[in-house]
Specification:
binds cytidine-5'-monophosphate; alpha/beta; 19 strands; Rossmann fold; 5-stranded parallel β-sheet; about 35% helix; 8-stranded mixed β-sheet
């Protein structure tokens, strides 16, 4: 969901390729964006406004009739609302109007009033595209900072073959995604643990916990979207993730410990989100334990503390822990932060179905040695990028502080 929280206007002008734009609306929305559709009057003779209204779940703006602005200045409201305007298809006529800054329809007035980027996906007959007038207009728009997406070469609706086909929806989607790629962790290797661990009692039973892995998997996706190479060391969970994430499946705390340590050489950030068992059975039964007596005692021994060991082995590595507590959340979390010498800890209250362990939602406090930030209850998929933002901010602060220290030092020598 790379386009989460993004607001995108998809603007449709008069061209047969408009039927493909209906699919583009769906796919951009599927990536998490909010979409509003704007049409020229001529576009409505190719695809009905109602089609786009139904798909986008929002009225379609064609004229300044106050759908989005009570004062009737919809073109201004939409221009301010949009993080990106994509004109698809962009007809030869629309391109000519844009280069001249015309504003005789809402779509063009909105583009004039928009401070951010406008992308255009031209679609027209190959001769119209090759015409010097269109080429000059396109070059002029490119020089003004418009993004020109396409056109492609190939068979055209008019029966001719040549340049002028609108790019395929999948290609347009990739281009939209590329505008919002977050590069906060570009090129960095982030190792994340997720899910519970299962500690065997005998060949058929284990000690486990209610962790679903949802938070850790959401963090892995968010780290991927922020440009990182991600290794996810996951305990038993049903979660699935992008094939671009390197997942190492483990079962026990000992296996998780080993897998994490094998990833540490080039690791830039370690996030321990897993709910690792604190104890394991000291003597795992080789055969299924039979029901012989009223009482059965299991002897438990402590597991490896992965997070503490990682920080000990690599004191300079930025390490983030999680503290899932049922009471005294902040107090216990702060204690963990200090005890395990962590750089950050994410504290959350568990024990209710409203948030935490198996829920899709969570509310957290982000603690560092000298800061505390609350993030209200939201979907884990929305929370994960916020946690990564907070980590990124801390890393930037540190870099700045060490530069200041360095500067002071070099001044004093
Ligand atoms: O002290 P406590 O176990 O509650 O600390 C929780 C944090 O430590 C979590 O980030 C968890 O992933 C990590 N942890 C770990 N290895 C353990 C126990 C906890 O990495 N054996």
């Amino acid at each position: 969901m790379t386009l989460r929280n993004k607001q995108i206007v998809i603007a449709v002008t008069g061209g047969i390729a408009a039927y493909k734009t209906a699919q583009l609306v769906r796919e951009v929305q599927a990536e998490g964006a909010q979409v509003r559709v704007v049409m020229t009057a001529s576009a409505t003779s190719f695809v009905a406004a109602k089609t786009f209204q139904a798909l986008s779940g929002s009225p379609v703006a064609i004229t300044d009739n106050g759908l989005f602005d009570q004062a009737g200045m919809d073109h201004i409201t939409l221009a301010r609302w949009a993080d990106l305007i994509v004109i698809a298809p962009a007809s030869a006529n629309s391109i000519a109007k844009l280069i001249h800054g015309e504003a005789d329809e809402l779509l063009y007035a909105m583009c004039l009033a928009h401070e951010g980027q406008v992308a255009i996906a031209p679609a027209m007959n190959q001769q119209m595209w090759s015409n010097v007038a269109t080429q000059e207009n396109i070059n002029g728009l490119r020089n003004r900072g418009f993004l020109i997406w396409g056109p492609a070469d190939g068979a055209q609706a008019c029966g001719e073959v040549g340049p002028g086909r609108m790019l395929e929806v999948s290609e347009l989607l990739q281009l939209v995604l590329s505008r919002f790629e977050n590069t906060a962790f570009a090129g960095q290797h982030i190792v994340i643990t997720a899910g519970p661990t299962h500690e065997a009692i005998d060949p058929v039973r284990y000690i486990g916990n209610r962790s679903s892995g949802k938070m850790g998997f959401a963090l892995a996706e968010a780290a991927l979207a922020a440009g990182a190479r991600v290794t996810l060391v996951a305990g038993p969970t049903e979660q699935i993730c992008s094939p671009r994430i390197h997942v190492i499946h483990v079962e026990t705390a000992a296996e998780m410990h080993l897998a994490v340590f094998q990833q540490l050489d080039d690791c830039d950030l370690f996030i321990a989100c897993a709910a690792v068992a604190d104890y394991r059975v000291a003597n795992i039964a080789a055969e299924k334990i039979k029901k012989h007596s009223e009482h059965l005692s299991l002897e438990l021994e402590p597991t490896e503390d992965i997070l503490r060991d990682v920080k000990q082995a690599q004191p300079k590595l930025f390490c983030v822990g999680f503290a899932a507590e049922t009471e005294h959340t902040i107090e216990y979390a702060r204690d963990k932060l200090v005890r395990k010498k962590l750089d950050m800890i994410i504290a959350n209250q568990v024990g209710s179905s409203e948030q935490g362990f198996s829920s899709d939602y969570n509310a957290v406090e982000i603690l560092t040695a000298d800061s505390q930030e609350s993030i209200a209850r939201m979907r884990k998929t929305a929370l994960a990028p916020k946690i990564l933002d907070a980590i990124h901010q801390q890393l930037l602060n540190r870099k700045e502080n060490s530069n200041v220290r360095y500067l002071k030092k070099s001044h004093s020598t």
